[in-house]
Design a protein that fits this description.
The complex is a heterodimer of chains A (284) and B (509). Chain A is α/β, with parallel strands linked by helices. Chain A has eight helices and 16 strands. Chain B has a five-stranded parallel β-sheet, with helices on both faces. A five-stranded parallel β-sheet of chain B has the order 6-13-7-8-9. In chain B, strands 10-11-12 form a three-stranded antiparallel β-sheet, with no helix packed on it. The relative contact order of chain B is 0.13. The chains are: A alpha/beta (284), B alpha/beta (509).
Amino acid sequence: MRKSFKQDYKVLLKKELSPNTFYFRVHAPFIAKKIEAGQFIIVRPGSHSERMPLSICGWNREEGYLEIIIMAAGVTSTEATQKNVGDCFEDIVGPLGQRSHVAKYDGACVVIGGGYGTGAVIPTARDLKDRGNKVYGVVGARNKDLLLMIDELNQVCDEVIITTNDGSLGISGMVTDGLNFIVNREKVSMILAVGPVPMMKAITEIGVAKEIETWVSLNAIMVDGTGMCGACRVTIAGKTRFACFHGPDFKGADVNFDELMKRQKMFVVKEKVAFDMLKSVQAN
Amino acid sequence: MSETVKDEPVKIKAKDRMAKPRNEMPLNDPAKRVTNFEEVPIGYTLDQAQAEAFRCIQCKKPDCIPGCPVGIDIPAFIKLVEEGDVAAAARKIRETNFLPAACGRVCPQDKQCELVCIVGKKHEPVAIGNLERFVADYEREHKLDRIPKIEPDTGKNIAVIGAGPAGLTAAYELRKRGHNVTVFEAFHRGGGVMVYGIPRFRLPLEIIDEDLKLLEDMGVNFVYNMVIGKVFSIEDLRDKEGFDAVFISTGAGLPKMLGIKGENLNGVYSANEYLTRIYLMHANDFPNYPTPIVQGEKVAVIGAGNTAMDVLRTAKRLGANPVCYYRRSREESPARTEELEHAEQEFINFKWLSNPVEFIGDETGAVKAVKCEIMELSEPDESGRRKPMPTGKFFTDEIDTAVFSLGCDVNPIITDVTPELTKNKWGIIMVDKKTYHTSMKGVFAGGDSVTGGATVILAMGQAKEAAKYIHDYVMGNFDYELAIPTDPIAPGVVWEGRFEKAHREPKKH
């Protein structure tokens, strides 16, 4: 009997982490077997859907599942979060991109997650820990109810610093304040930041000022995710690179963040049209 | 009862056949067709096809057969059309080509079979492409049996990577020989560049889907969403997953960049992105399909090859007034003559001898203008080629969208993680020219990944050749001296058949 190599992308577990943000455990054994920290997947919830890139917060190679966090922010992510246990995603492809850079460092490593990015830094934190590093996590949100995956991050970090804009938990402020708290306390050799572009830019500025090796994971707009279309092109040290193939992680000091922020807005008007249509269809 | 006299077969002279004018393909009206994505050529009727088939003089030593990368017995199928036995003509084509509906539509016949057609020496060549298309459509519309004879199961397993023209052809040829074939495709559907890169008004989706279904009916196993190089390495497939041979046909999916200022401004797309959004992801049916495309009215398309024509004509159908910018002149445009003419019919403007040097953006990062240098052509060099030379004179056009169509390099996902696979400095996979065997034992490659961006038919021709040797390999009869270039500047595979520059009539006014 020939092996079929087929995957069903079935939802095995779903949890609401905060309003509109969900944790999914999805069956995809071939991807789960090979994916590494920093790599991503592309998901199509339904037969008409966009190809949506998503980072991974974990996997189980034996049981063959991926762990993902999806925040319902637009048409495709909303469609995805409406999947329930037993439902299947139409397509999942991966692992895509290069794995995160990890090594043994002299000083501490700090992984920083903003919003959904908290999940994405967990696998890299574990890799860094496995290599004998001292690893700190810094996570931030507007208030304590929006914080995600703190327990999971705690398991792979020596310490997790929480920041909230309203001061409802941890340091009152932003993740940059959390990072400053650590770098003022001890030697830091490496930073990885995953989250909104302005946050990654602000973290990079601190990293550059303190001469710390700083990595960021770029969430550029993508279509195919395999280097074929170039939608995700970013300027890295003056050269055009494809976030899907050369990245998604790059050294923050090399990234043209302003260009990336502008490119992320390229389709906002149309994204709203599609989202409004979905909402009106589902309301009726 | 009147006495019937049996007609003596009258020998028709070649001169009389050639004297008939070519039956031009009937086309949908340009003003109407630019408002939709329906196919532009309507197709021959049986009468038109037979009239065109009559023009073939059945050369004793036909040039058209070696002029075809897959070696279709062109005079034989045309004779069957003339006799009205279209079903037999279909079987004849299918002996050598399993994608005739696609090839009849997208092959550059003007540079291949029709270029060397003897009738074409004094008259217009026989419309071989139109006839192939007619036969394939007749076969499909009449639901004729297309499944070839499949040899008894050999028990051999072959992995094909990529479900584009080369991969599908290899799968067909290898399945026919009785092997188990698994096609791994990174996208969520098959067809490769025929889906994501060729517009529906040139190649309808139904045709590609019928061909995919034929392979499924033959027992080929398709695995979508599977990125080889990431999930399985080539060694994994060969040494751990039980495949006796591997065929790499991953295409030329890596767009070449312009390398000019402003190329990453918003509104600047690669042709691959632009066409993929529309034809793979259906952005022309937004928001029913939520993948968006944003374009304004002033679309600049850079380049003048077939893909550039596809982008221009697509932009027109989405309501823009596209303009083509090309640094050489119309005569040097690498597009298939028919595509260029169809674009011209569709009211598309061309700025020949215009070389974009910079995109200019506004404060939001959106492209608002393109600056071009005016070029002039040099005197022909030894090879007869006229080079575009800068003049130092510039002009700037206001635009809101730009699409660059400069060709593609080979997709690096596999070669990047497979150092054992010899490639040249442009990333093209090096193969033995006869057998398509790569530097890794039991691993073959064909299509754009061994040539750089070429055509559907060349990819098919290579896959067909490769399949012969893959068969020999898995059956233990592979006893060839291999010559795999190791020089980093060695070129990829070049078709050594009759492939010349198309003769291009000046634009008809």
